[in-house]
Amino acid sequence: MDTMKAIRVDVCGAAEQMSVKEVPLPQPGAGEVRVKLKACGINLIDTYHRSGLYPLSLPTGLGCEGAGLVDALGEGVDDLNKGDRVGFAMAMGAYAEAIVLPRAALVKIPAGVSDEEAAAVLLKAMTVDYLFNDTCPLTGGETVLFHAAAGGVGLIACQWAKQKGVNLIGTASTQAKCDLAVSHGAEACLLSDDPELSDKLRAHATDGFPVVYDSVGRSTYRLSLGLLAPLGTFVSFGNASGPIDAVVPGELALSGSLYFTRPTLATHMARLGWMQASADRIFGLIEAGHLTVDVNQRYPLSDVVRAHNDLEGRRTTGSSVLIP
Questions:
Q1: Are 163 and 206 within one domain?
Q2: CA 226/CA 235 separation, integer angstroms
Q3: What are the Cα distances from residue 42, in Å, to 26, 121, 260, 278, 280?
Q4: Tens digit of each residue's pLDDT (9 = 90 or more) over 135-180
Q5: Which residues span the domain enclosing 156?
Q6: How many Å apart are CA 158 and CA 29, to the nearest integer?
Q7: φ and ψ at 224, to 5 degrees?
């Protein structure tokens, strides 16, 4: 039987729980497509799946996004051909040499976008798409706060905000990361451990920010609530510092009738037609030069433990990919 290499997790925990296994090459059923992977995106959500913060049934594969070539077609798939370039986000099992997915989970990649760019950008940029265009729609002219502005999602947010005419004020953990965010379009970026951070952020929005985008979680929640304008929106979309302990309705009231929302990409991807439309917006921005995908870290599949340790240790900037 044909086999392939894939990352597997038998027990949740540290990065060392991941191992490379030889597993059967999956075969596409009706309505499915097998993709020979050229690049696999690495995202913080992968570390949540591996650690057990977001529980999965075990044993499990890992990895939510990737790009590659159509390798085999199941019955009834008539709008793709072998060799077509496709990408995906929010699947499971992308840390592998191949993956089988429903046709509806795949988007076509245009010639002006590389496999590495597509694998590194889809999950992150689709996140920015729903944050900026669905969760709290931005039209231009707003001043917003975006934590972790130099991460994979953050650098895309900086560029997309600039393209929209939005003033994005960021935070990041080092001066080098702050400089990176500004070079990608942030209006300003401040050190997240600055003892005067609250006052310095307040200077950028004297009446408060209409929206705060927060993927950090526990360590930034209180700060963010205090910086929101009346009727402002706190958008929680990740937990890099650990989950927020509790959301107290009374605090939202006292801070100015605030809104708290916890959107997910999966909800938007389940909307009919949203995923390909979002991919088309993202690829259009790349082809027009408005969005540059910084693939700053590349790892072979066998080096997945180091990849996760680097990501969790905040030693990465921009996007990282595994190369099968």
A1: yes
A2: 14
A3: 22, 10, 28, 20, 21
A4: 999 999 999 999 999 988 999 999 999 999 999 999 999 999 999 9
A5: 140-262
A6: 41
A7: -65, -45
Contacts (Cβ under 8 Å, ≥6 apart) of 280: none
pTM as predicted: 0.88
Residue 203 CA to residue 210 CA, distance in Å, equals 14
Q: Rounded distance, CA 316 to CA 313, Å?
A: 8
Q: Provide the domain count of the chain.
A: 2
**Tally of CA atoms within 13 A in the half-sphere of 145 that contains its CB:** 36
Token pair of 94, please?
Answer: 């992308």
Contact between 83 and 69 under an 8 Å Cβ cutoff? The reply is: yes
Buried b / exposed e along 263-301 (16+ C-beta atoms within 10 A): bebeebbeeeebbeebbeebbebbeeeebebbbebbbeb
If asked whether residues 222 and 312 sit together in one domain, one would say no
Closest to 189 in 3D by CA, of 199, 174, 210: 174
Residues 206 and 297 in one domain: no
Instruction: Quick: pLDDT tens for 212-245.
Output: 999 988 878 889 999 999 999 999 998 777 778 8
Q: State the amino acid at position 245 in one-letter form.
A: D
Angle, helices 274-287 vs 152-164, to 10°: value is: 80
72 lies in the same domain as 30: yes
Please check whether residues 227 and 313 belong to one and the same domain.
no
Cβ(261)–Cβ(267) under 8 Å? no
Using only the alpha carbons of the chain, give its radius of gyration: 20
- Can you state the angle between helices 152-164 and 115-130, rounded to 10 degrees? 70
